[in-house]
Amino acid sequence: MKKTIILLLLATAISAAAQTPQALMQQGNEAYTKGDFAAAVQAYNAVLDAGYQSADLYYNLGNAHYRLEEYGLSILNYERALRLRPNFRDAKENLDLVDSKTEDNISQLPEIFLVQWAHSVVAWFSPTGWRVCTLILLAILGALVVLFLLSRDYSWRKGALIGGIATLVLLLLCIACTISSTVRYNRHNQAIVTVPMAVVKSSPEENSVDKLILHEGTKVGIDETLGEWHKIHISDGNSGWLTATDVTII
User: Fold this and answer.
1) Which H helix or E strand runs over 246?
2) What is the distance between the alpha carbons of residues 199 and 213, in angstroms, rounded to a whole number?
């Protein structure tokens, strides 16, 4: 009897070990390599269900959906990968590729150059990356302050003062980027249309006037949620109401 219980416990432990996020990720990669993209999607989603996420996981999941020609879900996962790693070049390139295959060709309202430049700078790193930069600059600033206070050589004190001022300016900019990146990461106000066709209404009612039609893969901003409806806007300035089932939050 004891032997049977031990064998059952051992089998349970082996089964649990086989279902670790790392093992599931490996299963997904092997399925993808073999061309079984549906199985790859299933394995990658199992990793997410286990509570694990990473930019690479979302990137792989986006690739698998792309191979299945599920462009909306592919775009969704590339966007999620870029939320975790804004400078993920492969995800950005693949996102641009899939975007070119979507049906809606929506023009974007022009941005002021400085605003566009600021957004591109913030996208260099994730919130964690900006926090690391902030800590490094803070340590450098502290070292320069100590050097200025303890050094008796005028040239060293002058160099420490100039370096400290420059480092302080960079530190303040880095703090601003950290705050902006963190706010952007925590603000889940963007979504992807994940149904073949979504009708944008003039108000949150089924019998309201149809304003426009969006297709799978289109990115929308969410301004407000009212029950089962999202008030959305798109990059050309148009806005309206979509049912929550038509989109998936990034």
Assistant:
1) none
2) 5
Sheet holding 239-243, edge to edge: 210-215, 197-201, 239-243, 229-233, 219-226, 190-193, 247-249
Q: For 190-249, which CATH class? A: mainly beta
Question: Cα separation of 87 and 43, whole Å?
Answer: 26
pLDDT above 50 (res 100): yes
Residue extents of the structural domains in the chain: 2-99, 113-186, 190-249
Residue 80 CA to residue 61 CA, distance in Å, equals: 10
Q: How many CB atoms lie within 10 A of CB 76?
A: 25
Q: Which parts of 151-188 fold into alpha helices (H)?
A: 154-186
Query: Which sign does the torsion angle of CA 223, 229, 235, 236 carry?
Result: negative
pLDDT tens-digit profile of 119-130?
A: 788 888 888 899
Q: Say if residues 224 and 232 touch (Cβ distance below 8 Å).
A: no
CA–CA separation, 102 vs 66, rounded Å? Answer: 12
As given in the structure block, the two tokens for residue 248 are 């998936």
CATH number of 2-99: 1.25.40.10
Q: Give the tokens for residue 205.
A: 């009612």
Over residues 9-48, the pLDDT tens digits come to: 444 434 444 578 889 999 999 999 999 999 999 999 999 9
140-195 pLDDT, tens digit each: 999 999 999 998 888 999 999 999 999 999 999 999 999 988 888 877 889 999 99
